[in-house]
C-alpha cells in the first residue's frame, strides 16, 4: 500500500500543534495557525486524528453526545478528562470573541441556557468545554465546507488513546494535578509512546513555538492513533459511528485491542 501522510493534532495557544509524517520525510512537529492549513499540509490523501469533538447533535442525552458516555467507564480515574459537549445550537449560540472575562462568563451563561433547553436531562456547559467552542466550530465549518474531509479527519481523545495503546488499561498517573503538568504522568505516557514506535526525538523534544509540552504529548498520541487507523487497526466508540444532522460522523476512535495486547 502506498504510504500516505499521517498527522495527529491537538489545539494549542498558537492554533494547532501537529505531529506529522509525509512520505519520504521524518516525523516532525509543527504548529499551524488554522486547521485548514494542517489539512492542506497533509494533502488530499492525508489522514488526521485530532483531540477535538467532531459532530454536534441537535439534542443531547445523558452523559453527552454518545461517545463520551461510552468511553468514560473505560478510563477509571482518568475519566474526568472527558468533557460533555452540548448541542450544535449551544456551541454556536455565542459567536465571540469576547472583550473581557466578564463578557466571556456572560456568554457562557447564555450558551448554558441553550444547552439546558436542548438536553435531557437538562445540563449546563462546563467552563472547560465552553473554552473549546472556537476550535470545535473551526473544524465543524471546515467539514461542512469540504465533505470529502469527513472520512480523513477523525476524532480521538488522548486518555482513550493511551488506554488503548496500554492494552485496555488506563494510565496509572494523571497528566495534570490541579491544572499543572505532572512530570511523572508525562514520563509514563512518553514511555508508552516510545514503546509504540514513536521517535524519542519527537516524544522527548521541545514543543514548537505556540504549543506546550502537554499539547505536544497529546498530538503524539493522536499521531499513533492515526497510524493505526491508516492500517485499519482502530475501533470507533460507538461502533458504528453516529451521524449528526449535517451528516458529520460522531465517534471517538482508539487503537484496536486484541487479546489484551497492543
Can you tell me about this structure?
The structure is a single chain. By secondary structure, the protein is of the alpha/beta class. It folds into two domains: about 5-60 and about 65-85 and about 135-255, Nucleotidyltransferase, domain 5 (2-Layer Sandwich), CATH 3.30.420; about 90-130, no CATH class. About 35% of the residues lie in helices and about 20% in strands. The protein is built from ten helices and nine strands. The protein has helices at about 35-40, 65-75, 90, 100-115, 125-130, 135-145, 160-165, 185-195, 200-205, 215-230, and strands at about 5-10, 15-20, 30, 45-50, 155, 175, 180, 235-245, 250-255. Strands 3-2-1-4-5-9-8 form a seven-stranded mixed β-sheet. A two-stranded antiparallel ribbon has the order 6-7. A hairpin with a 2-residue loop joins strand 6 (about 175) and strand 7 (about 180). The radius of gyration is 18 Å and the shape is globular. It starts with 5 loop residues before the first strand and ends in a 7-residue tail after the last strand.
